[in-house]
Every structure is written in structure tokens, then in C-alpha cells.
Amino acid sequence: MRYVSTRGEAPVLAFDEVVLAGLARDGGLYVPESWPRLSAADLRAMAGLDYATLAARVMAPFAEPAIHEADLAAITAEAYRGFDHHPDVAPLKPLGDDAWLLELFHGPTLAFKDYALQILGRLFDFVLARRGERVTVVGATSGDTGSSAIEACRDRASIEIFILHPNGRVSDVQRRQMTTVASANVHNIAIEGTFDDCQDLVKGMFNDAGFRDRLNLAAVNSINWARIAAQVVYFVHAALAVGGPDRRVDFSVPTGNFGNVFAGYVAREIGVPIGRLIVGSNRNDILTRFFASGGMQTEAVLPTLSPSMDIQNSSNFERLLFELYDRDGATVGHLMQRFREDGRFGIEPERWRRALRVFEAERFDDEQTKAIIRAVYEETGNLLDPHSAIGVAAARARHRKGGAPMISVATAHPAKFPEAVEAATGVHPELPARLADLFEREERYEVLPADLGIVKDVVSSTLDRQRAGA
Fold first, then answer.
1. Domain covering 92-107+226-425, topology
2. CA-closest candidate to residue 55, choices 29, 32, 34, 81
3. Helices (H) and strands (E) in the chain — how many of each?
4. Does the pTM of the predicted model rise above 0.90?
5. Annotated catalytic residue 456
6. Count of beta carbons in the 10 Å neighbourhood of residue 461
7. CB contact set of 117 (below 8 Å; sequence gap of 6+)
8. Out of 113, 203, 370, 416, which one is annotated catalytic?
9. Angle subtended at Cα 190 by Cα 462 and Cα 340, rounded to the nearest 5 degrees
10. Where are the domains of the chain?
11. pLDDT, tens digit, for every residue of 258-269?
């Protein structure tokens, strides 16, 4: 498998090169040159596989020949060992009336990002060892990516990792999961701004070719294709669990940066019988407004109970645009340039209608979010974090009685957002025992303005000090 940029001007790369490249050099995102296909027979043969083996099988068509399935199997076995010792790794729980909850918070940092980033950290090691190289990982987080990436990259001799988060706009648990990691190769930066500012700073570092090459930058955000490939796995896993490939299934996904739900789209493209993908948004509803109108327009980012979705620039949406425009990179590049300059763009009605064949969208404010947390707890005894609650609310709004099973994706453990959960239910969700002392640990992070020059200087000087002390 080889990979092309959504803007059509970057070099075509193999999978191992894409793992290290992250963002394409023309500013685009890498996608497979063509979609691999899984037949119904292929999918039936995967039913009953343990999660780690399934992951290697699903990812192999995206990775070979650069990385073979046997090597992937070793990586996935190590990555998913000890995911709370849950036998299913990504268990499904019934919510009634052919509705299900896919729990994706059984990893080390209690968020769905672990399912991809535990693999990505090991892919970095595998590829770097073959090349005899080191990388500087930079990433932006709206809450969960940062701690998952840090957990995956901490203490690795070939990696220095810098994570940018919006100062004061993540939960206390999310922040402390990042800033209390004492590993010498971990560096946290709190940016005075929004997640979109953090994301722009990361892209700015990648788009400076000299800086990128000198520091050998690598990406952990979902701009890195390897993350999307790893996330496809749990859509396959869940579809098989409810009767696939002989039964269609719908998914509802709480969505900010569009990476998670795009992985569902990829699963559909490669042959998983997915009918609809429901996008759940909070008040920062740029995606919901797009699917309602065919136009993308930014507005001010509003703080909510679901901070990981407080986004107005969903990077992975560019990958969907590439498909809607029949892989015309020049047009996608033009739309992205217009969006950067004007904060808006629109697409032709026929392309918008093509998107609506797969995607539907709903938005919920904080009061509605608390109401669904309360309702699900009263009905089932399950506690939902605010992001997962939005996914369930969107599923309930769009679930057709007698139709396909509806699977809501639960993206974070409720204990990551204890104040919101307790306000809705009166129950304070407890952190697992391994994190019980989280609020007693010392924090380490630096607060910086949303200024690319300043951030680059701090990253460079930090690396210089690390090397001098090595």
C-alpha cells in the first residue's frame, strides 16, 4: 500500500514513511492510494478473533509490504496487553432496543485514543530501530490525545515528545494525566488559547520545512494515518459482534476533530456493512451545521462540559473532502486555503448529498448532555462521560425502530469528568486504583502564548538542553 496527500503535491509514501511523516509536506493529510477491500468471507473469518489478532489482520492491508502482519501481530499483542484486563478490550454493553454502547476507555489513560496511540508508539519504535533514527513528536490535544500519546511515548530512547494543550480548557484529570508524568523525554506546553490554536501551532511547525527536518518531527494527532488505521479496528470488532457481515449496523460517534468518525467511514469503504454514521456535536457544532447546509463556517469556540469536542477546525474533515471531490487534490487544497483565509467554504449540492448518504448529525448543549447522562444512569446503571453522552443522545435521536443495530461509541471513562457526571447523577465516579493518587502528584508544564515563533524557540531550546545533558 502506498499513500497520497489530500492536496496532491507531496511525495507518495509507503506506510512506514507515513508513520513518521504525519502531515504531508504540501500541508495535506495522507490517505491510501486506493482502498483495500475485505470480502464477506474475509470478515466472517475474523469473527471470534481476540482483539489484538483482529487488529493485526485489519491493519495489515494498510501496512504491507512495509510492515508485515507478523510484525504487526507482535506490536498489537504488546499494545493491548493489560487494557484493564478486560477480555474483550473493547466491550459492547446493551442499552436496549437493539442499541449498544462500545466502551473504548479500558486503556491506560481511560480514553479511546489509547486504542490507536499504544500502537503508534510501538510503530515509532519499530520503524526508528530499523532506520537508526530519533524523532521529535509534537502533538496538540483538546484533552485526551495528550495523555494517551505521552503514555505511549514516555521513556522511549528514540523519542522526545512535546504536547500542546489549551490552558484552562481541559479537565483537571485530563491535565494532570499529562503534566504529572515525570519521564525526562516528556514536555507539556499549555497554550493561552483554544485547541484550534494548538493545532495550528503544530501544523505551523510541520509546515516550516527547515524546522521540521532539523528536529525530525513526527505527529501523534489523527493527522497521522496510522492512528486512523488502528481506529478502524474497533468498528470492525463491534460490527462483527452484532452480526456482521450478514447484518448492517449504524454507529453514533461523538466528534470533534473528525478522526474517530472518519475511521468508521474507512471501515465502511473497505467492506464493513456500516449503513449510517451519526455525528454527535456539542455547542461547537461546525460539523452539524455542515451536514445541515453543505457549508463549513467557523464561529467562536465555546467552553463546554465536553471539552475534547470544543473545536471549530476539524482537521480530518479534509480526508472526507478528498473523497467527495473524487480525490482532486488541487480542489481540496483550494478549499482549505479559502477556509484558512475566510473561515468558511461551501461545496456543491451533489457532493453534499453524497455525504448525506452516509453521515447524519445532531448537536446537544450542556443541559441536554447532563439530561442524557442522568437518563442513561437511571435506565441502565451505566455512567457516561459528557462526550459519550452526546454520542448516545445522537444515537437516540436517529435510531430507527426495527432498523439496523445502533452502536454508540463511548470515548472516555466517566471519572475523567467527575464534576459533570456528579452534577447530572449525584454519583461521583472514582478513578481506577492505579490513578488514585493523581491529584497528589507533582505537575510539570510551561505556559506560552499562541505564538509560533515562541513555541518553536522553546521546543528547540528544550531539545538543546536535553542533548547537552545526555
1. Rossmann fold (3.40.50)
2. 81
3. 19, 16
4. yes
5. no
6. 10
7. 145, 148, 149, 151, 152, 220, 227
8. 113
9. 100
10. 92-107+226-425
11. 999 999 999 999
